[in-house]
Amino acid sequence: MAIKSYRVPTVLSSDELKDKAFCRASKIAINGASALDSKKKTSIAKIAASGDIVKDSLTEYINRFPRIEKDDDFFPELIDLVIGIDQYKKSLGAINWAAKKIEKIKIESLRNVRRSKDIFAINCIRNSFYGRMSSVIDQVEKDLLFLRESKNKFRVMPFIDPKIATVVVAGFPNVGKSRLVTYLSTAAPEVAPYPFTTKGIVVGHIEDGWKKFQVIDTPGLLDREFEDRNNIEKQAVLALRYLTHVILFVLDPSETCGYSIEKQETLLKSVINGFKNVPVITAESKNDILVRKNGNINFSAETGSNLEKLRDAILAELRKVKFEDIEIER
Q: How are strands ordered across the β-sheet holding 166-170?
């Protein structure tokens, strides 16, 4: 199953947008019954074509860039971390204003051309339209460039659906998380760079009959205590709390990961404290090396031992998730 990503359009700069519109208009020539009729019909077509090209392009940006839903907590937090939510809203608002303004100027100019009975006046109206439209486009130049940069950031972000029950895998590096996520996923999980992780977030899916759940590993976020993270990473952890319905914390009791079991269990307590009201499944890896008798599920990604048992335990918790019942301690 392929991971969806945010599909956003290519954003033209102000100069590129004007060139596209005026290039199209320059190719239009319509013969009429007289010189005045030809000028009027040609000018009407030029104004309509150039205005529609710009308005439609701007409207496409508004419609195809991801929307921020009122009932969504995770996505606004993510946008704020990756792009900057205030500027994102401002730029989309500015583009929306420009699209409406250009449509208004176009309608006004077309009306004036239709009423005119003078070739010189028609030329003045058309040129005035071009100038006014160009001025509007120039006013949102910075917003167009901001959205162009935002597009590049959206392209590398896998689509994470906040309306799908999600298990987040935590634990120190080298404890077996990556192989476990690969095993749990119905297809090869996608690794995509997020600016607040050190190695890139890993997103996969678990299928349970007709249902689908998400499984996510976040290297660089939940592999050390909250106090040891920088401000951006702390914000990212807080954002992740809105998305997390179940946590799978992996311990390596053999300590071949390079971290003592005491240090791993301290991190476990830190994660539990940071994700209150979120159920935590504690599993112990590498049971082909060492097994502790403490009630935790033990498994081996190397031999496959107890992987199905662990998967069943995860699915049992995910099936309990009811979105209207979810409460996040903010």
A: 190-192, 201-208, 211-217, 166-170, 246-251, 280-284, 297-298
Per the structure block, which two tokens stand in for 295?
Answer: 């009630």
Bridge-based pairing of strands 246-251 and 280-284 is parallel
What is the rounded distance in angstroms from the CA atom of residue 172 to the CA atom of residue 264? 7
Write the pLDDT tens digit of every residue in 285-294: 999 999 998 9
Contact 32, 186 (CB under 8 A): no
Q: Where are the alpha helices (DSSP H) in the chain?
A: 14-26, 35-64, 74-82, 85-115, 119-139, 141-155, 177-184, 231-243, 261-274, 307-318
User: Nearest 5°: phi and psi at 258?
Assistant: 105, 5
Is residue 225 over pLDDT 90? no
The model scores a pTM over 0.70: no
CA distances from 196 to 148, 152, 173, 295 (A): 20, 16, 17, 34
The two structure tokens encoding residue 197: 């992780």
Tell me the residue type at 25. A
